[in-house]
Amino acid sequence: MISTRIEQALADCIEQTRPKRILVGFSGGADSSVLLHALSKLTLPQPIIAIHVHHGLSANANNWFTLCESQCQSLGVTFIGQHAQVKTDAGSLEQAARVARYDVFETFVLPGDALMLGHHQDDQVETFMMRLMRGSGMTGLTAMETQRPFGKGTLLRPLLAVSRDEIEAYAAHYDLPFVQDESNDDLAFDRNWWRHEMLPTLSERYPQATQSIVKTISILQTEHRLLNDLIDPIYQEVVDKQGRLDTNKLTRQSWSIQCQLIRKWLEKHNRYPLLADKQIKVLLADVMNARIDAEPVYKWQDNEVRRHNGKLHVMPSLPEVDTSGFVQNFNGTSAPQLPAGQLTWQPGLGLKPSDYQLALYQGGLKARPINRPNKALKKWFQEFDIPPWQRPFWPVLLKNGDVVAVPGLFVCQGYACEQGWQFNFHM
Questions:
Q1: How many domains does the structure of the chain reveal?
Q2: Which domain, by its residues, includes 100?
Q3: Do 59 and 120 share a domain, yes or no?
Q4: Taking the CB of residue 59, how many other CB atoms lie within 10 A of it?
Q5: Is 226 inside any structural domain?
Q6: pLDDT tens string 112-130
Q7: Cα–Cα distance, 268 to 260 (Å, whole number)
Q8: Shortest CA distance to 352 belongs to which of 425, 413, 409, 426?
Q9: Do 145 and 250 belong together in one domain?
Q10: CATH number of the domain encompassing residue 181
Q11: Coil, helix or strand for 416?
Q12: How far apart are the C-alpha atoms of 314 and 245, rounded to whole Å?
């Protein structure tokens, strides 16, 4: 029976990974609705939490939000609904929405958690064919793994061996309500064209096409894991604790190993599209081979790689905004809206709670960290090895015009306490 097969796939996945909590990426479509319903039928010790991301791209988005919340109430599942801002000018709308969605998911994933997504066998085949047409290498053609690290936890796709027909049969059997996203019928999107036009035609000529492609993906995944095992000792040598690549160590490797290390590096960061050999060649030429005193950058889609002090950094493209006049009041009750990066804090040894002004880095300011001399903020940022392109976006807390703390770096003399705010700033 189809329902038993799906529930068994979920039970096996949970037994193998034993997560502390199960988070479900819940769009409200048939795939995630079946995933959530089947999970709710299992007797599990772990709490199940559904996360719905409101992209705001459809006129029906509010209705989908309401439907998802209602489904969770009927299943007795905790519902979290989050709005996400999608960069509609960042090239591929599909990719931009995916990045925004995964960024939301990552904020809720704690150590030991598993994020489950409803991707199935047909999604896997579509992904493979799309990447094949882009000329992807082995890394791209492995398509989607059943399990991989994600943020502080693990991302699981337990339904990759289940077909779309089985998903739809399960939904029909239990009469599940689900979202009908009108964009899924738009053939302007490559995935929809493969789904509605090309793959049905291919299956008419080759009835075993899906199974053959799935078999090829499995072989490539095995070979890719072997390649990763072989190259991992080299990767550990060239990457530092902050996830930056050492250009001096990288250039000692052969061209083919450099390409594989770059791909592995991007893969480790989860959110970045993979680069083809031609793109990697341009990256190495433009960034690694630039003069030593330059701050070179390589951009693709809405992302960029930069070099600083012999290290490669990868990041989303920084916004082109004037940060010089940015000032907000800050009292620790709510997160400020920053042009870039994320500021968080928790109770602990840190800044004494009070009312402050939150500004962004200015080179003319001075600061005196605890038991350190008073000197220009620029000098402190150089000492902490903060790259020049990050500095204009770095938050600084002020009291009567004086620097009292730089989140993620230090608290100033006279402003620390044991029951204070312990800051972290991440870009």
A1: 3
A2: 5-208
A3: yes
A4: 8
A5: no
A6: 999 999 999 999 999 999 9
A7: 12
A8: 413
A9: no
A10: 3.40.50.620
A11: strand
A12: 9
